[in-house]
Amino acid sequence: MHLQNIVFFVLFLAALSFFIYNLLRIRSYLMLGRGENRFQNAGARIAKVIGVGIGQSKILRDPAAGLMHAFIFWGFLVLLTAVLEAFIQGFYPEFSLVSLGAVSNVVFASQDLFGLLVVIAVLYALFRRYVLHPKRLKGDGHTNTDATIILLLIAGVMITMFGVNTSKTFVHPENIEYYKAHFIASQLTPLFASNALTYYSSFWWAHIIIILTFMNYLPYSKHLHIVTSLPNVYLSKIGPQTLDTEEINFDNENVFLGAGDIEQLTWKEIFDGYACTECGRCTEACPANITGKPLSPRKIIMNIRDRVNERAPLLVNKKEIPTEIESRKLVSEHYITDEELWACTSCMACVKECPVNIEHVNPIVDMRRHLVQSEARFPGELSTVFGNMENNGAPWAFPQSERMKWAEGLNVTVPVAANKSEFDVLYWVGCAGSFDARYQNVSRSVAQLLNKAGINYAVLGTEEKCNGDSARRLGNEFLAQTLIKENIETMKKYKFDKILVSCPHCLQTIGNEYKAFGGDYEVVHHSEFIGNLVDENKIQIDDAKKIDKKITYHDSCYLGRYNDIYEEPRNLIKKVNNGEIAEMKRSKDRGLCCGAGGGRMWMEEKIGKKVNIERTEEALSINPDVISTACPFCMTMLTDGVKEKGKSDEVKVKDFAELVLESSK
Question: Which of 321, 234, 282 is nearest to 137 (CA)?
């Protein structure tokens, strides 16, 4: 064995050992978190890795920056062939990929092509960071320094690869026909004709040393996501985004009461911190941040990682934790403040935009649970809301006995489940549909349409209670689970095929989160259900009564990003409207929240611009006659926004059910 091989072997073994040590160190930090199963349904997870991870589908939602990152990522995948060749040559100097025969021509050409693309992408990244200064990339000096080091190391890997490919023709002239496939490097070959062996050796060693340095710098850099991003995509949720807290025995003194520090987070919530690219796309899309609130989803994830790095080494090594560090809780002025947590609308825009599928909302809710259940520390107005839910089964102060008042005066009979134990459809009216003066008209419209279509349905009436959504998102898990269990027990008394809801929050909670408590139901939103009735001609549209207005549709976060329902509402509008359907600038999965989700419906906005005003202004900017909604919270927020902007006489806020009823025979 030559001296070069011995030196390489020692260097390689040392670098690999240190890298593995760091990975195991980080793994030990993850194991401090609560358990969570993220390994089921492997097929769907692999498909997600192919689409989101390798296909870079979410990265490319921002075309300019997306292509830059995609070229670097895809370049690395292709250039693994050059890295592999260099490392094998460390053990066997005579090895060459020309052993692949004709395939090597494709490999060598790809190396040059993607090497060039990566260099261009790196130069653009540096220009973007230091000249264009995108707001979402602003960070402290360390962040910029770290990014610069990584970009320069990447450029170094590419440049030394080109150096090796340019000079190796002289070292291995027998392979010159194959090496011509290096269509860029081969053009530079004459520059290295003198002292080619020295150039080759220098470039090869520089290539190896930069790669090993890069590899061992990563665990101490935000760019660890190069290693963790694909695993994080694999481990991300499959299907609807849910709060998966299992049924809790609150009599157990060791029960989970929220995350006040890292040990109460799940291991996946900790892992998200090590997958974060700090790109800021989450914060850029956050309605709270857009309107001047203190919340930055990016900061939340970075704070979790920083607190883990501060506290976890002491816990793992069973060292005494200094008072100064012990007092710096995750939920405190040192890391994540109450104001940040309460600003979240749980709209899921951050999760939708994250290129590595980080789930920001779950830890935010876990930390809210800590504030509510462990600290009894929450905004004052929530005391009234929690009290109403406990005493009346709804966020409003109306008694249960008035749950059917919405149906008074209707020219159709609304059947109540207590009077018919078996039916096809349970119409879940919801708290807003029962008590909110404006949204009661939506409930009446739905009931009239169901009767027109001859649907065998019933409502729970005074037996129905709040689905628990607001209580859960506001951190009052005890109250939420109480309501959930009571509703499930009530529904067990009746036999039905599906549940029809008008509220997307009911759709999400009853349809996706009741399963954890034994309530496995088929739940459908009325925009889909009524649309099907129109398609089946069970509800007939009268051409003479069709609307002729300019309509814009506001996407509810819980209907869209949570349940992937975008086209059904738009198709329904097309069936009842002869006028223009205009899209807002931010629509579909990029739609801006109305500001009421995550329990914000029941809280005052005391900081910055109101989210509903931001959204209303966007809607009004396209001069619609009607703003159509599919959610009671959205209807309230947009109606208030239109009123505040003085446009109530010109612009109406209406639900699909109202539009269809107006247009039907």
Answer: 282
